[in-house]
Specification:
alpha/beta, Alpha/beta knot, six-stranded parallel β-sheet, two-stranded antiparallel sheet, 6 helices, 28% helix, 18% strand, globular, protein-arginine omega-N monomethyltransferase activity
Length: 202
């Protein structure tokens, strides 16, 4: 099963790097393809953590990288009418993510992909997810766990101390300890961003 992220961000933010690294660790480097990087991109433009994990990338857009007419594509779309099901594993070769599911507030940039691909769409519930959560949820469903059986937490509050907390405006999968699954290093980044925000007031 191949997962394609059409990179629709400007460059690689720290947040995006952590998400993409976690996705590679979750599904394996051979199963993730990052498309639509800017023309002229070289290996040296790819952040070192992603290079070290073996990120597969291309400057081609997804409809140029994959033979759309001869492949079974599924675009994960928050506005799709049909929810992703375990049986969809037999129906599709590629699952495509806009690299945009973490937008807050959400923007319908997935419509750009729909126009290009003209493929079937599936939904992962009705709330926004980060891209790594969307890939994780998709993998769990395709491995046999129905969406309604996955344990989620919506808009979790990440607390750093008695007086310091940040609410995350997304839906996350819970781990066995009932904690939201975040990319490795994300808590430190959230804390750092929170400290920066507080500094703006002084």
């Amino acid at each position: 099963m191949k997962y394609i992220i059409e990179h629709m961000e400007q460059g690689f933010t720290e947040w995006v790097i952590l998400e993409y690294c976690q996705i590679i660790r979750d599904i394996g480097k051979d199963n993730l393809i990052l498309t639509s990087l800017p023309n002229g991109t070289t290996d040296q433009d790819i952040p070192q953590p992603l290079r070290e994990l073996g990120l597969v990338w291309t400057t081609k857009e997804v409809n140029e990288y994959v033979d759309v007419s001869d492949s079974k594509l599924c675009l994960l779309d928050p506005r799709a009418e049909i929810d992703l099901q375990p049986t969809d594993k037999e129906s599709f070769d590629y699952f495509i993510f806009g690299g945009i599911l973490g937008d807050h507030p959400p923007r319908d940039r997935t419509s750009e992909l729909k126009k290009k691909l003209k493929c079937e769409t599936r939904r992962l519930g009705n709330l926004q997810m980060t891209t790594d959560t969307a890939v994780r949820t998709t993998k769990m469903i395709l491995e046999g766990t129905p969406f309604e059986s996955i344990q989620f937490i919506d808009y979790p509050e990440i607390r750093f101390s008695k007086h310091e907390a940040t609410e995350m405006p997304f839906r996350y999968v819970l781990n066995e300890n009932k904690e939201p699954i975040l990319p490795a290093g994300m808590l430190d980044l959230i804390k750092k961003d929170s400290d920066k925000t507080l500094d703006d007031f002084f």
